[in-house]
Amino acid sequence: CPYYATRELKNSAQIILCPYNYLVEPRIRKSMEIFLKNQIVILDEAHNIEDSAREAASGKFKLDDVTAALQDCERMVEHDILPGVHGGLAAFLSRLGTWMQKSAEDAKDYSDFN
Prior knowledge:
It is a single chain. By secondary structure, the protein is mostly helical. Helices cover 59% and strands 0% of the residues. The chain has six helices and no strands. Helix 5 packs antiparallel against helix 6. It is flat and about 55 Å long.
């Protein structure tokens, strides 16, 4: 399998080329076993790293996602599964959902600048 072969070969490689997200996203770095300590990193097109790092630290979700997560947490509390943890998460998700809904209702229309 090329994937596993590449993972083994990287251990003895002198140089490794990879996309930015392999370096800036901790989960990918961990799963690919990329360790940056005492390594030299050369970035081609380094002006793009800021966008890549911002994207790695960002998330997108909809009000429906927050509502589903809230309901899941409430069910966990009902079944007495870590009720303190899930109750706290449910409270946070409730406030987040309320804020998202209010922000959507109060959103200004900036599509017409005339």
